[in-house]
Design a protein that fits this description.
The protein is of the alpha/beta class and 345 residues long. Among the domains are: 72 residues, no CATH class; 79 residues, no CATH class. The protein contains eleven helices and twelve strands. Strands 6-7-8-3-9-10-12-11 form an eight-stranded mixed sheet, with helices on both faces. Bound molecules: adenosine-5'-triphosphate and magnesium ion. Adenosine-5'-triphosphate binds next to strand 2 and helix 1.
């Protein structure tokens, strides 16, 4: 494992909670999430649908609905490529104030799961991309336009000189997705959050987008948060990995440890469910039984207990397991972690 240094941390989440007050009760979408992003490294976040991946990234970008309650700390240690003496606590910022607006786009940029979220329907995509470039890297309008055109070309938008003056609704869904990726990459952010950036794209463009993200990382020492369902992409892109389940981090370690020495039964179940050529050939798939529970009024127990083959009655259903550092840099939230059960992997 590459040595990680504490002073390399660029963004740190400490016990972050995002709860939504709904008529049915309090929905705990994110419930005590802690992890750190190191300079120039990619942190992959993986987990089934509904486990809180997008809400976590929206909390970092401070774009939550008004009825969302945020707790804990989201500490940003670098701004405008300079280390800060005192970190900025994004969780405490006014979501519409000038400080977060100066962070969005230039310091932290985001590829959204839904591309319509990134663009206003009232302005051309060009105006929106150029405005972001002018604000963060190149004030000259003609030069900013040229950078925007090149960014659109780099994501395979044909005839970018003309497309740049079109409105979001004039582009197809896939093209909008690519235009958003161009916008997120063109400002050379210190931190890029990519929430399922390639799910809607065809395979060749997918590979191209992953290359673009890796180039950005190499050339600018950008740190990346990469969210996906796809463990194959996690293996290809990540240095470190967070596995989320029901609003909580259940395993957190470097990518090799995750694939070669997974300890949480949920991580192992996810790994077993990867479709390999052999499994496709034999028509045999192992899916995780049951579904993710709805995060309202949950019993106080391990969240994975009802689906876990290794659950122990009277232990796993009697409280919430704490996060344990089972070996340096390897964190697991399971009552059995570090007690020999992982030998069954
Ligand atoms: N604006 C909202 N209001 C109420 N509940 C929400 C809101 N956004 C998300 N949730 C709920 O919060 C939980 C986490 O949602 P989130 O979108 O973070 O999941 P996800 O891990 O990104 O899933 P997917 O893989 O499907 O994108 C879900 O139970 C979801 O229904
Ligand atoms: Mg999501």
């Amino acid at each position: 494992m590459e040595k990680q240094r504490k002073d390399d941390i660029i963004l740190e989440l400490k016990d972050v909670k995002v709860h939504f007050k709904l008529d049915e009760g309090l929905l705990k979408a994110v419930d005590g999430v802690s992890f750190a992003i190191h300079k120039g490294r990619t942190l992959g976040i993986v987990g089934e649908s509904g486990c809180g991946k997008s809400v976590t990234s929206n909390a970092i970008f401070k774009i939550l609905p008004k009825y969302g309650l945020i707790g804990g700390d989201i500490l940003l240690y670098e701004k405008d490529h300079k280390r800060l003496e005192t970190p900025i606590n994004i969780a405490k910022l006014n979501p519409t104030g000038p400080e977060i607006r100066s962070i969005r786009g230039g310091n932290i940029s985001m590829i959204f799961q839904e591309p319509m979220k990134a663009f206003s329907p009232l302005h051309t995509i060009g105006n929106q991309i150029i405005e972001a470039i002018q604000l963060h890297i190149e004030p000259d309008p003609a030069k900013a336009r040229a950078i925007a055109i090149e960014a659109l070309r780099s994501v395979d938008i044909s005839n970018p000189e003309q497309r740049i003056d079109e409105y979001p609704h004039q582009l197809s869904g896939g093209m909008r997705q690519r235009a958003m990726i161009a916008m997120a990459l063109s400002c050379k952010p210190s931190i890029l959050i990519a929430d399922e950036p390639t799910t809607a794209l065809d395979v060749t463009v997918q590979a191209q987008v992953l290359d673009l993200i890796n180039n950005l990382k190499r050339e600018n020492d950008t740190s990346v948060i990469f969210i996906t369902h796809d463990l194959g992409v996690i293996a290809e892109m990540s240095d470190d990995v967070v596995v989320m389940y029901l609003g909580k981090v259940v395993e957190y370690c470097d990518v090799d440890t995750l694939f070669y020495h997974p300890m949480h039964p949920y991580t192992r179940a996810l790994l077993k469910s990867i479709p390999t050529e052999d499994k496709i050939h034999k028509g045999r798939f192992e899916s995780i039984r049951g579904t993710v529970p709805y995060p309202i009024n949950l019993p106080v127990e391990c969240g994975f207990c009802s689906r876990c083959d290794e659950a122990e009655k009277g232990v796993c259903d009697k409280g919430e397991p704490p996060m344990v550092e089972v070996e340096p840099g390897h964190f697991v939230r399971c009552f059995h972690a570090g007690k020999g059960k992982e030998a069954q992997a």
